[in-house]
Each structure stands twice: as C-alpha cells, then as structure tokens.
Design goal:
heterodimer, A: Rossmann fold, Rossmann fold, 4-stranded parallel β-sheet, 8 strands, globular, B: alpha+beta, Porin, 16-stranded antiparallel barrel, 16% helix
Amino acid sequence: MKRILSLLLLLCALPAAAAVKVLATVPEWGALAREIGGERVDVMVATSAMQDPHRIEARPSLIARTRTADLVVAAGADLEVGWLPLLLRESGNRRVQPGQPGYLEAASVVQLRDVPQTVDRAMGDIHAAGDPHLHLDPRNIPVVAVALSERLAQIDPAGATAYRDNLDRFIGRWRDAMTRWETESASLKGCAFLQAHRSFGYLAHWLGMENRGELEPKPGIEPGSAHLSRIVANQQNAPAAMILRAAYQSEMAGKWVSERTGIPLVTLPFTVGGTPQATDLFGLFDDTLVRLKSAVKRP
Amino acid sequence: MRIRKLVVAGACMSMLAASVQAEETSEHARLAAELAALREQVAQMQSMYESRIAALEERLAGTVKVESTDQTAPSSQTESPSTLQVSSPASAKSGASSFNPEISLIIQGAYTNRKKVEERHIGGFVSAEGHSHDEHRHGSDKRGFTLDHTELVFAANIDPYWRGQATVAVLDGEAELEEAWFQTTALGHGTGIKAGRFRSGIGYLNEQHAHQWDFYEQPLMYKALFGDHGYSQDGLQLKWVAPLDTFVELGAEIGRGQNFPGDDRNLNGANSYALFAHLGGDIGISNSWRAGLSWLRTRAGARESDFETEYGIDAEGAFNGRSRVWIADFVYKWAPDGNPARRNFKFQAEYFRRSENGNLDVDDGLYSNLWRTRQSGYYLAGVYQFTPNWRAGLRYDRLSSGRQSLGDNPAKIEVIHYRPNRVSTMVDYSWSEFSRLRLQWSRDRAMPGLTDNQVTLQYIMSLGSHGAHKF
C-alpha cells in the first residue's frame, strides 16, 4: 500500500518537474516551438504533413494530449474548427482554453490574406477570417516566433532568458536564410501556376508568382472531370508553368491535368515532414524552392 | 497590407517591451539591450521587404501609384497592442450580433418502402414508447415520403466559465426540447460538469443525434433500450480525463430518470444513476480506437406498456421496479496515414445486458404479476469511405428476449421468446460535409413471423454553423 502511494505521489510530482508540454496542431508550429523552446519544451504535434488539417477527427489520443498540454499552438482562422474546439472542451484543461496564456493562434498575430468580402456556404469551405496557411510566407515566421517566445516566457518564467536567446539566434539564422532564398528564387518571379487547393497563396505572394486558379471548383469540393476539362482547355492559350499540390493532397486531379497539358505537377512539402528533405522550417523552404525551380527549368 | 504588417510587428515589440518592464531592475539594462537588438533585426527584415512588397502590390493593383508609407513606419512601432486588435480580422465583426450563438438547423427526411404494420414493435421486448396508441411516433415508422424531426441547435460560450447548448426537435406542431444544458469550461484538472437536460454519456451512440448516424435508423439495441431519442435525463454529469498519454475518461451522472426504462416518479433526490469509463488511443499512425463500459440504474413507479394475454386479449401493464443496464462499446477507425479526408474505415460494436426486477400491475391492479427479466443484444457495423464523396456500410443487429420470469402469471400475460434481428446495408453520397444522400436496404426481422424488406432513400442537410462531431 505504502509503495503504491509513493508511486502515485511520484506520478503526480513528475509533470511539475518535466519540460513545458507544447501541443501544436500542425507540424510548422511544432517545428517553431522546437526552435524557440529548445530543450525546455516537449513538443507534440497533433497532425502530420500527410494529413489534411481541415479534416482531422477529435481522436481520443488527441484529447489525452490536450489534457496534459501547457501550451496549445494553433494556426487559427478556423483551420482547425472541425476538431480543435472539441479537443479543448473535452480535455477539461483550463490552461489551454482560448483567452488563456496557454492558447496561441498564429493567425492572431499576422494579418491574413484573402479575407472574403461575403461568406456563404455556396462558396464552398471558405475561411471567413482569411487564408490560414500563413506559414508559407517566411516573413510571417519571425512574427509568430516573437509571440511564441512571449507565451513560453509567460508560462515558464524561469526559461525566459533561454527563450529570448533561442529567438535571437533563430531570427538571425532566419534572416540569413531569407536573404539566400530571395536571391535563389529570382527566377520564379511572375511564374504562373495552378494549385490543387488554395494552399499556396502566401508562398506566391512572397515569391511574386501568379496564381491561375485552383483545381477544386470551390474550396473543399472535389473536382469533377468536366471542371478539369475546362481547366485543360483554358491552358491552351497561356499555359501555367506548373501545377502545385501539397504532399497530403490527392495526386489524381493534378496528374489528370498534367497528362493532358504537359504542365509539370509539382508536389511541395507544404509543411515540415511533407518531404524527406523538409525536416525543419529551414528545410521546408529550401526544399520548396528546389522543387519549384526544377519545375521551371524543365523544358 | 504593409502598414498592418508593421503594426503587428510593432505591437509584438511593445508587448515584449511591456513584459520586460515587469522584470527585475538589475536585469533590465541587459534585457533592454537584447530587446533593442531583436527589434532592430525584425525592423531590418521589415525594411528589406518594404520595397519588394510595394513593388508586388503595385503589380497586383495594376497601378503605379505608391503612397509614401515611410512616415507611418516609426509611429507604428510605438502603437499599443490595442491597435493590433483593431486591425486584426477576428474583430471585424462588431456590435451585439457578434455575441449571437452558433446556430445550426438540420433538415432530415426520407422516402421509405416497407410493409404496412399496424403496431410496429420489437418482438419479446417491452416498447420504450409506452402505449402503441400514443401520438408520439418517430418518422421512421411511416411509409412513403416522410419528414423527420428538424433539429435546431443553439450553442455558445456563456461567459468565461460556462458554455451552453440547446437542441430542439421540431415536427408537425410539436417542438421537443431534446437537450438544454450548460457545462463548465474553466474548472481545469481534466474535470467537466454538465447540468440540465442532456444525452447521457453511456454507450457510444447514445450522445449522437440522428443526423450523425451512419444508417437510417439507430440499432435495434438502442430502440429496445431507450426508444427513439437515446437516453437523456434532467440531471448532473461529472467527467474526468486522466492526465495520461492514453485516453482515460471516467464519468458519473445522477438525474431525474424520467425516461424509459425508468419513469417520472417525481421524487426528492435522484431516480437514475449512471457510470461510464472510456479508454482510447492510437495504434501506429493509421489506427485509432475507443472502448467503453457503462452502467445505468433507474427505477420505474408505474411504467405503462401494452401486453397480450394468452387468450389474445389486450392488457395494459404498469411496471414497478428496478432496471439495470450494462453497455460495452468499441469503436475502431482506420485512415491511411491518419488522413480520413479521402479514404477511411470505421467499425463499431456495442453489446448490452438489461435486467429488470419488480412487479407488473395488469389492468389497473386487477392482477399483480412478478416481473423479472434479463435481456441482451448487440450490433456490429462497418462503414467504408472509398472516395471523398462515397461511403458504403453494413450493419447487423441482434437481440435476445432472454429470460422473462412472470412468476405465477395470474394475468396470463403471453411471454414471447424471440431473437429479433436485422441486416442493413447502405451507400451514401456527400456533396460536402453538410449534405448527404443515403440509399439503404434492410431486411428487418424485429417482429416474430415477419420479414420486412425495406428500402429507404434519406437526405440529411445541415444549415449554419455546424459544430465539430465527436470521435
């Protein structure tokens, strides 16, 4: 009995001594939390790069992770509206409820693009607050990083200096990387592309690429062959240079159009872990640019 | 765009500055220096892209007009965080209407082809709906074109401490308050308290409303156990999630217990007690599961139902006694790479045992029978989504009327021994997650001596802000 009691006490004492538990809804913010938190944080990511972040089920394992989290980092702007509110409510974890220091939405510190003027379900699965895939503009990353280090310091004041140092180092490295990416990507400027879903708005905005539309007829609606045939026909006069697809999205529609038009289909990692090369945020942009450039070079 | 970005950056900086001020003065100088360096770095980055963004925006707008924004840059650095709030899109909605609850409306209906049966029931089981001549009948008993209950759901956070939800089911001049509850949001430690009228947390399917079902009707098991609307009661629920990597959830409920298998005894205290435990997790990245065990105990004072005597004469019985239900449930879901958007599979199974112990007063107390039953049943269901729009499913239902002991049986109630069963298969198409059309075929043998082949074409349409569904 005594042994069981001491074991229980030990179990109760463990979480207090352990690192700050961060639950990121998507891999990009998990990777950023690792950069800023370093050794002081224990990062869990609710989804992988092979999963559609719009369509995740509130699985029991995710409720369990939310229950023990000290900080939830979400993309926000309704990206996780189909599952995160349920996780937060079912977990009974007060620390990570919206409005608490333990809940941070990346979209709350960045000005979003493509905010629709009117919102109607006839327009498909649109995001009323704006495009939530904001991590693909590397200029947004440091802004979120600052907010994240703030929150970590608030939750774990003993690590405030460490978080600031990590942030400092990260921003320095990020600035250097961005200078490199900027020069490397000069050839992509003005390059026209089609995309499977509206995933690459921020990336295109940063690189100065031109969006010629989506393969989906409406956000979240599967394309049919009639719709794709129209897209193929539209490519006759001024064809796009490439078709972009995130690693988690189906290859079928893009392949179908690619075969009929000769426009290369490019699979981008979209987030950390989407390709073997995209192991962290730096790798994500390195690999994205490599893949984009190789598509441009192709005859 | 650019101005707003600068405002955001500036606000972040000032937030950082504000937090630094709160720290000790000895550290202050060093931190201030660090902060200044950081601020400079971000400012450098901003300025690096100033010209670039301007050029892009110019191109997008198709104009050459460039406003001088250089003056706004330094001033935005000193903006307070409130500026961030003003420019953030989340606060675009303003005024009283932004506090309106999330409202969703679900329209459901069907075309059904089935045999005409005067008193549809489950053989060997007492009807959970009371008298067969009662007005209250679910749409699923009708034939031809039918409209089911239209569900109206209101949900919102009440304040920082409470969240509330009400579900009203409307059909043909009758509005039934299915649920009206509030729950804690700020209790913490994995604890949640819910109070009001709510669907009990027992079993797997019990908390789900009709629009979430994978088949047109709920399993025979639920119809036999609780009738058409699952088990709900007016009461109190306490839930606790354990701080573990594996999902462990424990729950307890007490309440009025006014619904079948109990009845409204209008007591001080509680008439119904429930306990449930859920366990769940992932296996690899593609598989997830949840298992549960639930227990319900309730009492009936005079629960009315129809019987037939051995001479073929109708008799009315009123049950007085205790009813206990055990439910074991299991759900397993598979999705390649854990991404259910395109393909996924779901298997679910539930098993119950119910024992009742008490007396049956027949024909207004003319006879008093002993009433001791022990009944059981289960269902197994699998649903496979093979493309983003199409799903197909198969379900098997089976119940056992089990042991029914009526003692000396002075009222000569006819005891029916039967094993009701049903096979259902369905295929459904979803244009989006808000609209679904389902074709279902069932071979229903819920009643002795009757095999009813049923074909149903059903629609489910969700309007408005539809909340997330549970696992």
